[in-house]
C-alpha cells in the first residue's frame, strides 16, 4: 500500500511547532509499516520555493512527488491551483491519502467572506481550499484526516471577544474567526460526511463535542495521538529552583497577553516571584505589546525573557522549574504539557476543552477557567507553598507514570494511524 502523506516539507528538517513535531515522528515511523510519499503544502512550495528546491536532493529516506521535482527544475512561477492539479496527478498513484493536520489554504478570505459563508459547497480556489481533502477527491482516493487544531463554538467566540477586548489582545475576534473559518466557510462537517473520507481523527474529545455530527461513526478519538522522547525523563530532578516557567510560540494564542497580568497578581503572594520565558515571537506588534505590559506593571525584575533556546537548555530549565504556567487558548494534545509532565514539572493551564479532556485526571495538571487571572495566580501559589512531600506526590504517582508510559512511543502513534489507513 502506498500512502500519500500531506504535511510540511520542513518537518524533514525539524522545523515548526508541536503539530510539525507530531507529523515528523508519525511520518518517519509510518514508513516502517508501508510505502509513504510526502506531499508538501502548496503554500509552502509557493512561499519557500528556494529553500525546498535547494534541499530537495538531500531527502533520501522519504519519497517525494514527481511534480515537486518538475516545479524545481522548471523554475516557472506556478499559481496555487496549478500546483494543486499537479499534485492531484501524483495522488492518482497512491492507494490512500493522509492529511496529518487538516491543512487549509487561505488568502484574502475577508474579500470573499460572504461568498464562502453563504455557499453550500466545500470551497477550493486560489483563496480558500481544504488542501488534502481536495487533492484526494480530485484524484478519487480515500482519505483519512487528522484534526490537530481547535474548533471553537459560537459561544466561545463571543466569550473570547469580550475578554480579548478587556486585555487588549492582538486579535480579539480570534474565537469568532475560528468558528466561522472551520464550520461555516471550510464546511468541515460536510467534509466528514463525504464517502471518500474514511475517518476523521481527533486528538481530544474537546475538539468535537459541540459539532452537530459528533456521533458520526467516521469520527474517531485517537488513543495515543502524541508522544514524547523518553530521553526527557533523564532530566527529571528533585533539586528544583525558585522560579516558574512558560514556553511556547510567543503568540496571543498561547496567552502571552495575560502573562504580565498573572505575574502582577502573583506578586501579591510573593513579591520576588520569577518567571522564565522562552520562545520565538513571529509578530513584532505582539512582541512590542508584551514588553510594554512588563514595563507598565514594573515586572522587569520578575520576568526574564530568554529568547529562542536549544532543546537541551529548554529541558534543563523546565525540569528545574517549580511550575509551568500555561494560559493557552489554542491547543489540542499539547506537547508543551506532555513534555512538562515528562520533565517532572507541575502545570497550571486554562481549562479549554481540548486540553482539559486529555489531562484532567492527572494530579500534576491543574486547571482554571479561561481568562481567570486571579485563580491562575492562586493555583500557582498553592503549588509553590507545598512542602516537598506533597509537591513531589503530584509528580511521582501511578496515574502520571501510566500516562507517560502510554505516550512515550511514537511507533504506537504511527501504528494507530496506519490501522485507520489500511482498514
Automatic annotation (TrEMBL):
Protein name stated in the entry: D-inositol-3-phosphate glycosyltransferase
Keyword Flavoprotein: no
PANTHER family tied to this protein: GLYCOSYLTRANSFERASE WBBK-RELATED
Gene3D superfamilies per the UniProt record, alphabetical: Glycogen Phosphorylase B (3.40.50.2000)
InterPro entries hit by this protein: Glyco_trans_1
Domain annotation Glycosyl transferase family: ranges: 236-396
MF term (GO), any: glycosyltransferase activity
Domain of life: Archaea
Keywords: Transferase
UniProt entry tagged with the keyword Protease: no
